[in-house]
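quick one, 540 residues, struct below
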Amino acid sequence: MKLAASCLVASLAGLGFWYTQPARPADPIAVELKGPLPGQTAVTPTPRASFTPATRKGYYNIDVVGDFSLPSTKTVTFCGAGRNLHVQQDRTKLFRRGFSAIEQTRMVPNVEIWMDGDPARNWKSSLQQSQRSLIIYQDYFANAFGLPWARNSELARDVLYRTPPGARATRNTLFQASTELGGGCYGFGDCPPGTMKSTFGKIFLDIENDGTSRGNQQEQANLYTFMVKTLKDNVSPQTEIGSIAPVPHNSFGNSKAEHYMVNPDWLWNTPARQTATSKQRGMPDDIMGKSFADYIDFQMPGTYYLYPDFDYSARHTSDGDRHWLASLLAEQEVNRKLSPKKRIAWHWVFNTQSGDFPNSGKAEHAAPPAVAEGMAIFYWFTGAYGVLFWDDHKDLVPDQPSPNDPQQKGLGNDRNYACYEHYIHGLWRLFKHHSDLFNGRETYLNEATECSYDGGKTWVAYNANQIKTRDLPFVRAIVNGDQILVAATKAYARPEQTTPVMVRYIQNGYNFYTTLSLKGDEIFLGRSTMARGAGGRRGN
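---
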């Protein structure tokens, strides 16, 4: 994974782009409450597990919580580190700790995927199709099929779609690279009779060559459209495909006001059209007028954190300041309006690498407890479909001596992985206790969540950027029938700080008001049964 923050400072002018700053979105109008404040309804806080976070290097305790699973409407793929810590004792443990799928590189050989030559006679994988995921990195295209375009998008005009008629057959085509992924069924022992159709549940593309010069954009759009169309032709009907890029909009964790006014990125929905050479290189006419967005099953907006997101002493309230929760929410708020496609974000609970930001040169800083737990809770309040939980390390060997090489300190086995425990704890709090609300009939209020910051005199509904720049507590809510689930926190607050905020929901015959008292930067999660009628009811 190379979604480095250097993307933030890409020289767009040098690539032939012109950038026009969009207008700033209008602030929502505060609604003044007329008359006395209605009776309030108590919100029952969701339990927290009691555990002592791990202090050993290269280790985390997956049993900080008990058994739970995701609702069928959500998905979390494990491509993190350290499955080896527990898989020998219980191969299924991950599936009872909030994960619903395993990426191929984390699978158990010859049990979950066959790795040693031809599968044994009548062998079948122990994994259901929905539990299997695959990440395709750029090396797959560049190394195995000799397509350097995967590393350098400026070579798009040189890529062969298919071997031209009369030419000597070659594997160095985008068709061949995309078609051969159909053999993904082989390692699971369930290829359809007489054919190869991949039986992964999800395939994630991580090519990251989407940026290109203006004169090359049509070639790039054609290739991305053809690639995804060909992949779809070679997978089972149940296989879903998505890509880290393009997405309708990538904010790179900035959560600026202007991002709420953008149009979709050009590569997302530019229709395929023949160019001067594309037909000779094998581009078919059947993708003409279609785009990447037409064929992809899910979009993947999300952001990796830089160290400033974890620094409580840094400034986080200006429009351009980095803010862990504003970026997590804003990325989803913007993209869900730009496309109706389901959303799956990459989550990594360490900082990504960037020499452009202080303390971000290496991925050595773990997400603080509230950030790791909050990622696993607030993200789902956006209506997202899933998560790809990723790490740049695979197996962990605990208690290793600190490396002599300073460049290796704070990496891999030298890290503290308690952040995994806090993340799993967040999943447990949400889905162990509230899975019934995620049944497809829920409503995600997102930035329409109404709050009062002056004791109920006025009510506003802010997006993530507006909350950040006003330095207010974040509140998001989900409604399902007469049930309301509320998540709230005052990000970066001091441990001794207490912050009040009021929340209301006055739609569909409900008249719900409540007051929350937030402690420090802890993640509040609570649920209530709403009463119909003119006044709320006290108690729960």
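The longest strand covers residues 498-505.
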